[in-house]
Amino acid sequence: MEKRTRDRRASPFHMLIESSISPSGTIVGEGNTIAHENSSHSEEDIGLSKTEVKKRMLALQALGEAIVKLSPGQLATIPLDEKLKEAVDAARRIKSHEGRRRQMQYIGKLMRNSDTETIKNAYQELLDGRTEKTRGFHALEQLRDQMIEQGPNAVETVMEKYPQADRQRLRQLIMNSRKEKELDKPPASSRKLFRYIRELDES
Predict the structure, then answer these.
(1) Hey, where are the domains in the chain?
(2) Mutual orientation of helices 116-150 and 50-68 as an angle, nearest 10°?
(3) Is 106 exposed, middle or buried (CB count within 10 Å of its CB: 0-12, 13-18, 19+)?
(4) pLDDT tens digits, 163-196
């Protein structure tokens, strides 16, 4: 009787079930979005130590986290396969901390079998674009401040840079902004001046 019990436990069926259970007791399958981080290995993991594999997995999860936080428009610029896109969309809807953590773990697993270099490059291009936009924003702020500091004399300098500008409108906005600053009033005209030069810069 004891021998039969041992044989039954060692049968291929039982071995298959046991191999599908994670250390936490959760059954892991293809249709399950909860996956243990060491449940599978990609070809790139071959020859790496367990520490290196784990470090790579965490890096991919971090990239996945960053992608999940993107706006819909930004996300559309990242080349994700259908399964990974669905996983990202699901993560954006999950509210619970534990559920999101597990979903991010699953996204990390999917990314190991995706074209991660293409995804990384697309995300980096997005970051570079943000950086360039931020630099341009600060440059326009500095130009606006210089215009307010110099007064109407700054109009000619701006006209050289933006010949399509309305000279009279510029002059009026600069004078109103200077008056606001002198009277310590809210910078309503200063904001209008910034918006106008940004329109000129983008036109």
Answers:
(1) 2-114, 134-202
(2) 50
(3) buried
(4) 999 999 999 999 999 999 899 888 899 999 999 9
32-52: burial string, b at 16+ Cβ within 10 Å, e else: ebbbbbeeeebeebeeeeeee
Strand partners, 21: 27
Is the confidence at residue 9, as pLDDT, over 70?
no
Backbone angles phi, psi at 24, to 5 degrees: -85, -5
78 CB-contact burial (10 Å; exposed 0-12 / middle 13-18 / buried 19+): buried
Question: Considering the domain 134-202, what is its CATH architecture?
Answer: Orthogonal Bundle (1.10)
What is the C-alpha separation between 32 and 44, in angstroms, rounded? Answer: 23
Q: Is 21 helix (H, G, I), strand (E, B) or coil?
A: strand
Integer Cα distance of 68 and 80 in angstroms: 12
Q: Are 158 and 109 in contact (CB under 8 A)?
A: no
For residue 157, what are the contacts with CB-CB under 8 A and spacing of at least 6?
A: 150
Please, are residues 68 and 104 in contact by the beta-carbon 8 Å criterion? yes
- What token pair was written down for 35? 């996956």
